[in-house]
Amino acid sequence: MLLGGAAAGAGFAALTACTARGDDQDASAEAALLAVGADTVPFHGTHQAGVTTDPQAFATFIALTLRDETDREAIRRLLQVLTDDASRLTAGRGALADTEPELAATPARLTVTLGFGPELVRRVAGESALPSWLRPLPAFGIDRLEEKWNDGDLLLHIAADDQVTVAHAARMLLKTARSAATLRWRQSGFRRSRGSEKSGTTMRNLFGQIDGTVNPRPEDDDFPARVWVADGWMAGGTSLVFRRIRMDLDGWDRLDTPGRDQAMGRRQSDGAPLTGEGEFDEPDFEAIGPHGFTVIPDFSHIARARGDDERPTMLRRSYNYDDDVVGAANAGAAGEAAAGDAEISDAGLLFLAYQADVDEGFVPVQRRLDELDLLNQWTTPVGSAVFAIPPGCAEGGFIGETLF
Predict the structure, then answer these.
(1) Residue 19 domain-assigned?
(2) Total structural domains in the chain?
(3) 263 φ/ψ angles, rounded to the nearest 5 degrees
(4) Fewer CB within 10 A of the end CB, N or C, for the chain?
């Protein structure tokens, strides 16, 4: 009986210890999960948050058109209130006139980044304050731009690791702005959710391709010269090229794996250049294959994107989008398209390029891609806008104050 009692006691103790360990593991996992929602990104600083911030899972980009009566002082007031709202929301607090502050309690690394179009700069400080690059991009042969996705006077770039957080922040900021501006366009994108893959993993676009391998890093010596504007009211700011790129997923589906790899110049499986073993290996554009042609074709995307300067000229950030095809349901009901021919979605990439000067960073690369990039067969730019991203501000200041 004593032996049996001891064994039972030992078994109970072991079970209790296992249960305790299980409870500790569950608590640890829950704490890690909740930390995703509690994380914040400082709003104030030399540069605006959201440019070099590790990209969040969800983003909404909103372009506004200033009302005719919105003058210099009205713009100042607007920027002051938007700054105050954004600083509160990114800290996990409700905006000043927030009727649903409970939705702000989960910041999830929320960032709010403001961008200025040429008309806003012109109304505040006149034509002379316009940077030479703050204008629509040159026309490219591959462009099929739709007016509804172009330009804008004021950009709100709102991103977080939680979609409810993004939606709430967007609504609060739009409520603040509606007396001074109207909505021009709104576009939303997504990446992998935080925690679903190893931190630092390069994103994949909806073609399944690694997207954004070669990027300048903030710790690089030449990063400030390539990305940040050095002087004037834009000192500490940057320029943003925003492009909506429609992707022909149905056409891409019909391309075999070797064809995809040739078009990109990288293997889809691991993102490595066709001459390398790993994603970050330096491509050898001179290497010749067994048939006498370069291993990485001259018409491949990475060959065209790479110029004489091996260093990247812009900081790239991308988000996938997958929207409903307009009229698809009606077309199906009316029998206007056979089921096998109907488009499944309007999908693609929201492409962002940050650089100190658009004409030196983005434009030369895009010209090379425009001339000869096999990937153009499956991608079409349908929206384009250029914005000045002003520097950040200290507490008590506001975004855009240097323009005044």
Answers:
(1) no
(2) 1
(3) -65, -40
(4) N
